[in-house]
Design a protein that fits this description.
Elements lengths: L1 H28 L1
Length: 30
Amino acid sequence: MTHLILVTGAAGDLVVEVLATVSAYHRFVR
């Protein structure tokens, strides 16, 4: 279960980074 939690946390961080990058990209484009 510990591994699952770590993987889920890493995936969550990755999603947050991607969303932040996409948001910054759209802001840069506009």
